[in-house]
């Protein structure tokens, strides 16, 4: 049965390698996190490969895998062995021509507690995800596990308060954000501090507005695999925040790390009792939120 307290972890890694090596690496790091007491463990976005969305290249579709194949088999066995919950973000091949940016939530017995397909898909310079990923069609979900109620969103979803709110309203105690975000190296000096600050601030705001824990797992390293480009310098800085936006753990910009923090459901309830944002929502006045624009 879920407890009132449990430990969560995010793993920050350099994943600029081939799928076989990234799988071995991630299995080892999950094992290390579990040995340190972590009970719910998240990997970064698209764990099995370099960040291939820097270009639009049909050859990259070969990196995708069908449901319940390599990644699920490996991490399901590990979750069962260690008795932990593992969030495994992967490139899903649903059928020929339909691919998703997805994440398994694997329970402590190795079963699937949930599947999330990234809902918001960006299209920015060197982040050409719309070429590869069909928008998710499973909606925003709470995934009950034997450790706790887990919500999983992915990277670009970080910027949308609606995604966090709906996931929290469905019962999620923690919002995990597997992530692949970084600087364009030539822009870092001018824009880097504000970009990174905005990224942290918006997710801390989700924690406050919803009285939830938030955990972001980013990758690190310069991934420069296309000739003539500056690549992307992934900024790391993975973190775990509490229900008042307080930083419980934070990683560096450039080191592989495991962050662990405790989820305290009694504290969460106390925060929500004293800051009753859910109670005071004017749901009768929110109808316009479903419009693209209010003209």
Per-chain topology:
Layout: E1 5-12, H1 19-35, E2 40-42, H2 70-82, E3 85-95, E4 98-106, E5 112-117, E6 142-144, E7 149-152, H3 161-169, E8 174-178, E9 182-183, H4 188-210, E10 213-217, E11 220-223, E12 232-235, E13 239-241, E14 247-250, E15 257-264, H5 265-274
Parallel strand pairs: 1-2, 2-3, 7-8, 8-10
Antiparallel strand pairs: 1-15, 3-4, 4-5, 6-7, 9-12, 10-13, 11-12, 13-14
Helix pairs in contact: 1-2, 3-4
Number of domains: 1
Instruction: Give the SSE string.
Output: EHEHEEEEEHEEHEEEEEEH
CATH topology: Nitrilase/N-carbamoyl-D-aminoacid amidohydrolase
Binned strand content: 25-35%
Termini gap: 49 Å
Class computed from helices, strands and strand pairing: alpha/beta
Oligomer: single chain
Can you tell me the CATH architecture? Answer: 4-Layer Sandwich
Contiguous uncertain segments of 5+ residues: none
Count of discrete alpha- or pi-helical segments spanning 4 or more residues:
5
For the report, how would you describe the main beta sheet?
Answer: 6 strands, mixed
CATH class: Alpha Beta
CATH superfamily grouping:
Carbon-nitrogen hydrolase
Strand order of the largest sheet: 5-4-3-2-1-15
What is the alpha-carbon Rg in Å? 18 Å
Shape descriptor: globular
Could you estimate the helical fraction of the residues in percent? 10-25%
């Amino acid at each position: 049965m879920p407890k009132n307290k449990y430990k969560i972890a995010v793993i920050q890694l350099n994943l600029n390698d081939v799928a076989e090596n990234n799988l071995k690496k991630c299995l080892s790091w999950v094992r290390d996190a579990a040995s340190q007491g972590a009970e719910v463990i998240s990997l970064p976005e698209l764990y099995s490969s370099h960040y291939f969305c820097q270009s639009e290249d049909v050859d990259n579709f070969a990196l995708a895998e069908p449901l319940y194949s390599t990644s699920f088999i490996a991490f399901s066995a590990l979750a069962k062995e260690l008795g932990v919950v593992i969030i495994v973000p992967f490139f899903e091949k649903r059928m020929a021509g339909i691919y998703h940016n997805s994440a398994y939530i694997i329970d402590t017995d190795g079963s699937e507690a949930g599947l999330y397909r990234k809902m918001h898909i960006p299209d920015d310079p060197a982040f050409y995800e719309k070429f590869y990923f069909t928008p998710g069609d499973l909606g925003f979900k709470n995934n009950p596990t034997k450790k706790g109620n887990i919500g999983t969103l992915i990277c670009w979803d970080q910027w949308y308060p609606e995604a966090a709110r709906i996931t929290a309203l469905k019962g999620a105690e923690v919002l995990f954000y597997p992530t692949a975000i970084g600087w364009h190296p030539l822009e870092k000096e001018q824009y880097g501090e504000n970009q990174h600050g905005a990224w942290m601030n918006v997710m801390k705001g989700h924690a406050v507005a919803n009285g939830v824990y938030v955990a972001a797992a980013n990758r690190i390293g310069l991934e420069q695999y296309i000739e003539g480009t500056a690549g992307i310098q992934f900024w790391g800085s993975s973190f775990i925040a509490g229900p008042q936006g307080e930083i419980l753990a934070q990683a560096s910009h450039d080191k592989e790390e495991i962050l662990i923090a405790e989820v305290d459901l009694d504290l969460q309830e106390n925060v929500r009792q004293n800051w009753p944002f859910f109670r005071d929502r004017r749901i009768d006045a929110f109808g316009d939120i479903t419009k693209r624009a209010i003209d």
